[in-house]
Request: fold
Amino acid sequence: MDNHNLQSRPRYDLLDGLRGVAAILVIFYHFGEGFANSPVDQMLNHGYLAVDFFFVLSGFVLGYAYDDRWRKDMTASRFMLRRVIRLHPMVILSVALGAVAYLIQGGVQWDGTPVPLHWLLVALLLGMLLIPVLPGMGAEVRGNGEMFPLNGPSWSLFFEYIGSILYAVWLHRLSVRALRWVVGLSAIGLSALALGNSSGAFHIGFGWSAGGLGFLGGFFRLSFSFSAGLLLCRTFRARRIRGAFWICSALIAAALACPYVGAADGQPALPNAAYDLACTFLLFPAIVYIGACGFTTDRLSTGLCEFLGRLSYPVYIIHYPVMYLFYAWVWTNGVTLAQAWPVCIGLFVLIIAMAWLSLRFYDEPLRRRLSAKLLH
Reply:
């Protein structure tokens, strides 16, 4: 999220805090992946929907920050340069950490197949450039179809860049009426994939893989949520809502922690797809609206939102290399969830520390240097 010219608006500190809440919940969702046998029994079952919330939030904040600047001092190339400076340093670091984790695991796919070093180097280069890897390519070094095999969550940054490009060259020009058409058509596309069970599990967890309809599903997730956030920004009328941060945090936690909906005999079922669509189409825009209507008026919520906002992106983008090592330990040793909880807590603290250190000593200093050199 680009915070240009937003610091004077307390409500956007609140939205940044909500982004941090969702990022932390994603960590625990990914811990649960290590013990799930199917999408039905996954702990914090709908954690993947955090990405859709991020996209709505991104569309809203970018629209607020830049919509009125295109006729003044903003160009598409300058806007994208700002986005690259904001996002890409951590992308590069996360992929490098992913390569280190991969070597610690022995440089093999999940099934134990050795991978030549040159394919790891290719995967490293493609990951740093945010170029997707197709299933079956030599650079798909983990063998499970990830678009970015050295840092799985990079897929959402790939689509975030697509959203930024679309905004820079097209979406910022659209009228509210035209933007409603984009939102509506995207909703139809995403609904068709979800209700038609294109994911194989009646959910909208598309995008992490380019296999099958994964890329198309990821695009529809981005196009709906980003455009909906932008539309919400352009039609926004504030109403003061007390306790907005705590209300929104509870809603996000409840939405992501909800168990799989409607499973029959442990099999995926249509009601879950409907739940995912309801969260994406209705709940997440509502949460962003409530959050934008709130203010951080006390020291606790102000400090918490500032802390969570600063750490949200580093936490999200660098935590997965730690998860790869965690999964290898769990699966190799047959560790149960009850046995793993102390390790999970320790790794959570480690991830927060890594995020803070990378932000403090790498990301923020590098962004300051790049901004001073390239934007002035």
